[in-house]
Amino acid sequence: MKKTSYWAKNDLSLLFLLSIFMNGFETGGYQACLLYVGQEYDLSIGQQGMLAAVQLFATMIAPLLLGALADKIGKKIMLVIFTACRALSAGLILLATSSLIFAAGIFVLGFACSIVQYVAIAGMQDAYPLTRNRRMGYITAMFALGAVIAPLVVGLTLTTPWGWRSFFVLSALIFLVLTFCLVKTDFAPREEASPNELAQVEGGMYLKGVALLCTIMFIYVGVENGFCFFLNSFMADTLNSSRGYLALSLFWLAMIPSRFLCGLFAQHRSRLIYIAPLGAALMLALLTSLTQEILVFAAVFVFGFFCGGVYPNVLTYVADFAGGRTATVTAAITVATGIGATVISASFGFLHEQFGFNGAFLVLAALLGVDILIAAMVPRLQR
């Protein structure tokens, strides 16, 4: 390979990392904004759940419609177009005068972010075949880092004349810069594939393995979104706390070391893939019994730590089952996450009405229990 310097090898990786960071930034920011958006448009908890589901529905259908396109026309053009769309969606949100227009802007944002999510992850796998398992931990850690920072930024924007809208102004500016950088960067592979990696590409897609990965993420992301979108309301209702946005930041903060550790210990992925949902299920169940704010903060942090290990460990198995079609398989996983997030977030209002916040969170913990069983099956299918 001609490119040997650190920058020449990792320039593309850094753009992928920034793209995923901004996905986390948008996710965490929107979750933190939802309470204030609901207040501005006079929305109930159930209506807020439906507004959250709009973005998640877009996340679901984007890869369903365009999932295989990146493998056909190239990942660069997909990333450039849909990163630019993210800037346009922020403009639509800023001009919104009703919840309906806001929902339209959020739909465009969710659609574009979903495309960027799976294409950037697939691009990282293709460009770095020798170190991709380690980089999966790092790329998912960037999502968590963005989601940690965003609620704090939202907290600051509430003191500005534009309020929560200032968050989307900042996002639009970053998207414009990122679009320019993507246009200027070469997407050629930065590492030579080993004979084993080449053999995996020639092996064809393993549908049973892909189906298990999709099911794990269907459940996990649904639980994650159901928890995060309503954590602010949970703390306000059960603890009379106005610092739910700080708990949300703690949740995402815990994912950063967790995902870096998954990258460092990728050789133990066969055990980590089921240990992560096991710990998450136990902590979420414990959370429902706590009545002191400081203890809730601690439980949310540990819950986030275990949650952080689910996604990167699932992604380390993409190449094992993809047969060279990394974008297609990653898109399928993204579709599953969108369906899970949409269904569970939209259902949370109903669960809250029937069982209250604690009962609804216990239902989510039970769903994670199903994830444990499915995750334990994945390493046995490795080819």
UniProtKB/TrEMBL annotation:
InterPro entries: MFS (IPR011701), MFS_dom (IPR020846), MFS_trans_sf (IPR036259), MFS_Transporter (IPR051788)
Pfam family for this entry, one: MFS_1
Domain named Major facilitator superfamily (MFS) profile: residues: 12-383
Compartment(s): Cell membrane
Membrane topology according to the record: Multi-pass membrane protein
GO MF term (any one): transmembrane transporter activity
Keyword terms, alphabetized: Membrane, Transmembrane, Transmembrane helix, Transport
Gene Ontology cellular-component terms listed: plasma membrane
Membrane-spanning residues: 12-37, 49-70, 77-95, 101-124, 136-156, 162-183, 204-223, 243-265, 272-288, 294-315, 327-351, 357-378
Superkingdom of the organism of origin: Bacteria
PROSITE patterns: MFS
PANTHER family in the record: BYPASS OF STOP CODON PROTEIN 6 (PTHR23514)
Record family assignment: Belongs to the major facilitator superfamily.
Protein name, per record: Predicted arabinose efflux permease, MFS family
Lineage start: Bacteria, Bacillati, Bacillota, Negativicutes, Selenomonadales
